[in-house]
Amino acid sequence: MDGQLGTNGEKSHDNEYEVGDHCLVPRLLNRFVELHSVNSSSGVSETEAKTLLKICAIKAGGMISLAIDNCGTLWVWGNCPQQSKEGELALVSSFTPTPVRDFLGRSVVKVACGNEHIVALVSAGESYNGEDLVCYSWGYNTRGQLGLGDRENRLHPEVVKTFDEESPYEVACGAYHTALLTRIKKSSSDTLDSRCWTFGLGDNGQLGHGTTQSTLFPTPVKELPQNVSLICVDCGLFHTSVVSSDGDVWSWGMEKGLGLCPDASRAGTDSGDALSPRLMSWKPNQPKFPDPVKLACGAAHTVIIAQGGYRMWSWGRGRSGVLGDGKGVDCYTPTLVLWPQMMDDSEEEEVKSDGEQGKAREKETEATNEAEEKLSSALNELKLLKTKLSVIKNYASILHGSVFGKPFDEQDIPDSLQNSGSFDMGKEWEKMLETADHRKLIRLEMFYRDMLAGVKDELMKRRIKEIVKECLQSSEV
């Protein structure tokens, strides 16, 4: 609808897979087939440039799509920040990939985008040779998501000067916030420590600063441990997650850092946003994920690849089956994604040469995986039951307070219900009246008198409406 497919309204031969502005199957972007490299200073011919053009990285967010080619050129399409006819910044639909010409002569290495803003890590020189990167941001800045110290929008990329003395190497954007990873080189050793910086909207704790305040300048997430090597960061709409090389994963933001949008089923004591980093565990007493590779956030869920790429865990909002655990419910702890076990050629030869040991290991692995899945499922069900119990307790307390003038307590549960599991309403009512003092009886009388008066009033209103309706009908006749 906003051009984020980059097809420019072109019709394919398979019209059955196209519905209005939507395309139900992958389409080749002819724009990249036809284009040659925009870096004309390289001195190569147009034919050679067509052959050399290769997409090295892609990113998408909100209604924007982005790509980086092998020459370091950044391409954007979709609902992009552009200059309107009035000369001001506006989100203009671009239906074909367009290069960001502000970076011509330099290489864009990393890029991310939110709903209305873009952040890019760009080389200081013409090409990237592993040196420090410069952080640029542009687009809408109503929540401070550009990190430039104000709320003014930017039509063109502008340097985020906070990182002049640090080297950013990873960037991610939520709907209206931004997260970056930077390296600090210690003078006393060759160890490279990492820091996570966040800025922009903080209403749900997605900045991890312990508050719900928004931040206009990049600010480090101080509650993350020092002397760690952070390898990846990503953002959902309103939550942020990072992973270290040791396998620790921290999340913060909406609904305990899970990214879950609050709804009726999450009311009660178990709800609440995580304002500071929360360490995630893939099984009880085992927080570290083995050999982490990559972490990614959807709008309201998170997925991590670990164990060298052979296993995945997911957590967060599970609707539409996005967690890949065979269910469609929300998951509050990391759960294994149902993924076929794979092995490389050397492992396969070893299994063939020693069949019995291989089968034993397979059975042991399957048993472990099954036990982990059952345990994780049981923990999820237990948390769901606790949530439902909390909602029921709140309801019972409100109802009990309305009738008896005090909050519900366990000692108020009738003995017959505690002992036998059955409940005789009539007998318990008589027993309660006998044991009630004068003050309690007066309160009960007032409560039920008000209820009865309300019922009578409602019945009277309905009867009057019926009489009026009958009179109108008779007058028409």
UniProtKB/TrEMBL annotation:
From the UniProt record, list the RCC repeat ranges. 72-124, 133-184, 194-246, 247-308
Q: Where is this region: Disordered?
A: 345-370
Q: Which InterPro entries match?
A: RCC1-like_dom (IPR058923), RCC1/BLIP-II (IPR009091), Reg_chr_condens (IPR000408), Ub_ligase/GEF_domain (IPR051210)
- Transmembrane parts of this sequence: none
Domain RCC1-like: from-to ranges: 2-338
Q: Write down a Pfam family by its short name.
A: WD40_RLD
Identification of the protein by name? RCC1-like domain-containing protein
Species, as recorded:
Vigna angularis var. angularis
Q: What is the lineage of its organism?
A: Eukaryota, Viridiplantae, Streptophyta, Embryophyta, Tracheophyta
